[in-house]
Amino acid sequence: MESWRKNKLAFSVLVLPPTAWLVIFFTVPLLIMWVYSFAERGPQGQIYLAVNFANYARAIEWIHLGIIWKSVWVAAISTAITFAVGFPLAMGIAFAPTRWKNLLLLLVILPFWTNLLIRTYAWIAVLRTRGFLNFGLEWLHDEFSAFFALIGLPDVMGEFQALELLYNQKAVVIGLVYVYLPFLVLPIYATLEKLNKSYLEASLDLGAGHWRTLFSVTMPLAMPGVVSGCLLAFILSMGTFLTPALLGGTDSEMIGNLIARQFSSSRDWPFGSALSFLLLYLTFIILWVRASMASRKRGPI
Amino acid sequence: MVDNTIISIRDVVKRFGSSVLAVNNVSLDIKQGEFFALLGPSGCGKTTLLRILAGFETPSEGQVLIDGDDMERVEPNKRPVNMVFQSYAVFPHMTVRQNVAYGLRVVGTPKPEIDQRVQESLSLVQLEELADRKPDELSGGQRQRVALARALVKHPKVLLLDEPLSALDAKLREQMQIELVHLQQTVGITFVIVTHDQNEALSMADRVAVMNGGNVLQVASPTELYEYPNCRFVADFIGKMNLFDGQVVGVKEGQVVVRADAITAHIGDISVPFGDEARGKVGIAIRPEKVKLDGEEPKDMPIRVRAKVVEVVYYGNESHVFLQSTSGAKITANIKNTSRNTHAGIVKGDQLWVSWCPQDTLVLTS
Prior knowledge:
- The complex is a heterodimer.
- In chain A, 74% of the residues lie in helices and 1% in strands.
- Chain A is mainly α.
- In chain A, helix 4 crosses helix 8 and helix 11 packs antiparallel against helix 14.
- In chain B, strands 6-7-8-3-9-10 form a 6-stranded mixed beta sheet, sandwiched between helices. In chain B, strands 13-12-11-14-20 form a 5-stranded antiparallel beta sheet.
- Chain B starts with a strand and ends with a strand.
- Helix content of chain B is 24%, strand content 35%.
- Chain B has 2 domains: 5-235, P-loop containing nucleotide triphosphate hydrolases (Rossmann fold); 240-364, CATH 2.40.50.140.
- Chain B is α+β, with helices and mostly antiparallel strands.
- Chain B contains 9 helices and 20 strands.
- At the A-B interface, helix 9 and helix 10 of A face strand 6 of B.
């Protein structure tokens, strides 16, 4: 590693192209957006460069703070649900027999090979009033009704009422859990996979049951992966825009949608930039808190 | 020491998949208070057998009794045994004290009793001063003590040790060997240790089971194992051995008459004390340190071979002299360097007489 770094030519050949790419296509546009965030919007949506904080001030007005707060809230809830689903899944894959592991990992990654838009529309087909889930429930309802009618209790089930599953906050959470599950599963899987299984055997050997081992040994030792996975799911959920736009109702707007609207229909790039950077600052604060927490107590792995 | 059986392994077979036979029909009795070693090369099934005792593997066939109780379907956390893992598996997110207390806490031992037993256990392995450290602040030897304390605090009926010294450097390993023996004598708990290191097994154990290819070949005390190995594998695996192919040509009360072309060409057939039946092909064996080297032919020695020194390797306290007999057989002789006259002045190319006593000679029928 050291000698490789010392070879200036090899080092620059390998490092320069990606650096240049990042600077030209990422850092510079980001800087432009940052400059815009202090600019003023003209009457036709023009951008007048300036140095004022009006956009930021507007971003923290109550109406926008409400949306930001709701985004944080929705992201937190969906991250919690994703963790509840994802941790057992990651554990299942990590402790599965070797020959199953790759297949199971593939199944987790598989959705990435399909366009997110199509997958989200598929959820609409599942969740809408005349969707697959309601069809399934109705079928169950009919079966039970027939059964009760057979044993002499007609009308006990009543009329089937289709559930309102789509275009509300619940649909957004379901969609977010679905989309960001792999982002949470993979880091947790990676830590569990590296985990020396002797720790778990030692715990059992010392008299702990499987649940005790899970909470006292497996979880604490998988913490680095858990934190990475949850942060990833949280940050991505918070900035999401497609899921609430398609699955959410009128009250489900998240900060991502607000930003998207500034750049499209509102034609207010300066305000959109300010909102974007607010989201970015929020993300940085979360990452900084995590980093300082990790350095304060030396992680177990 | 009460002379009763604490572990009884009966006809245990362990297969992995359809093709791998890890343990092949092993029966063993381990006595209460014994320091028992499972010795063998890697892949011989010794670790699998230990894991069967701990409950991490289920035998495909056979039965394991611990203190008279059948261990079938008894989970690892319900067994009266504890294990010291090869990697020690000291929990990195807990302090030394928390590690040791863990096994008591999970079974709901009252707090004052935990404190007292943890203290006892830590003082047993001399770790009291490091009790509040995290494992990553400890050396390998100290981590191993934590693993020992953590297992012993449970007062198990049997302590299982999986290659406990393999991760330590040579000096520390020797010291820990002695400490482990002391510890075992202090606590009086049966120790079952798995090792691939014959020195470890010989120096620590009361009895040793030598395993190869899933089979137990010999169970004996260290001296018996070294002086009376029952087969070629044990003879060769424990210490060093000069081995020659031979043929039984006759039997007379307590002795067998053998012909081994490599050594008997000059002196004719030799008689070796041997109790059992022996017929056909056998192995003739002699330990390198039981061999004498002379310049003149030792006429009084019944077994003597003329050989040329091929190589002399100096080890400080002793030297190993590699010789080749006139018939082409390879013989090794270990000589003690009891004076500064290094390896008795023997140098490469010397023509010498190699000789040894019939009663030191081993006849190996398998």
